[in-house]
Amino acid sequence: MAYKSEVAPRWATAGVVALAVAISADLAKPDSTELSLWVAGVGHWVAAGCMLQAMLVRHERSLPRIYLISIFALLVPIHLWSIWIGDVPPVRILAVNSGAFAIFALALVVCLRGPIDAFDKIMRSIIVVVLLLYPFRMAVYFWFPPEATPGGQLVSQYMLLIFTMVGILGVAFSMALLLAIGTDIVQRHRLDSEIDALTGIRNRRALNRQLTDANSVGGYGAVLVVDLDHFKRINDHHGHDVGDKILIAAARELDAKLSRFGTVTRMGGEEFAVLLTNENVAAGPALALSARQAIASVRLPDPHDQIEVTASVGLAFREIDQPLSDTLRAADLAMYHAKAAGRNCAFEVERRHGLLELRAVA
Questions:
Q1: Averaged in consecutive runs of 10 residues, what is the pLDDT profile of the chain (362 residues)?
Q2: Whose CA is closest to 97, among 65, 140, 63, 66?
Q3: Is 272 in contact with 335 (CB distance < 8 Å)?
Q4: Fewest Cβ atoms nearer than 10 Å: which of 12, 16, 152, 170?
């Protein structure tokens, strides 16, 4: 399935094209043919549907297809009849406005469900105003019919005001949608740049951003550093292809076992880091052992199923107001003590009375 930042621009582009066609047909008045009247009406429906769909797919939501089909199946024949057969302008106005109102109302119901961002709030507000304008437009048309005097002149003034407001709102909606899609694309590229190409988990760039991001730093209270033991020996004896497979399997095991407790990243080479959230700090020692056991469970298929993989793990608890990068360095220090103690074990470090205290995690 295509990523949302790829799908939304397609819908938005389709909406712009449909709107351009509808406006061109509208501009043909007063010399409008039956075809241009029909294209103008249906074009507005298609443009509204595509633009609103572009807004919704940003959050992996969609206009319900069955309802859209029902709206078009009901109103397109009525619209056709009012233009080509009955030549009844009031029915045509009612059909066009009812169709647009139904599509916008349907989009509003869908976008009220689930999370929304600042751009969605703006677009949702515009939808509400547009929904109010459609009934007002129909009311003005039927209260002051064009053939009435001076009602004909009055309706022209009101309709001009309504068309102007709808145009301004349309431009505002399009700009908000454009900015939202642009933000999605930028975010996607940022996320892509923060995913390790080999293992599929977060990479060092993502880790560095989290170490400095004020919005995320406060949520972490401990750090695990996991380093595979004798990894160079594995590469030398079995080849880098096998080493890559081990890294992929190790990342998968760590992510499966620990991602619900914090953020798992590959720091580089055979070294991984896990930032534990504040609510999981107390479980730090148990999670350090869990990380070691996750690596020990890595097994490759035959003919490499006899390769045993172990890891040395370092755990550090974050002090009050301590930069998270310092906690990472402390966990790295604990990991090196685990290496020195014989590997395939875990050490934790904690500052007591101004001194770093290292001890094995059992």
A1: 66 88 72 76 89 88 89 88 78 86 90 81 92 85 61 54 79 89 85 90 92 74 96 93 96 96 95 96 96 95 89 93 91 96 94 78 82
A2: 140
A3: no
A4: 152
Q: Which two tokens stand for residue 360?
A: 């094995």
Is pTM beyond 0.70? Reply is: no
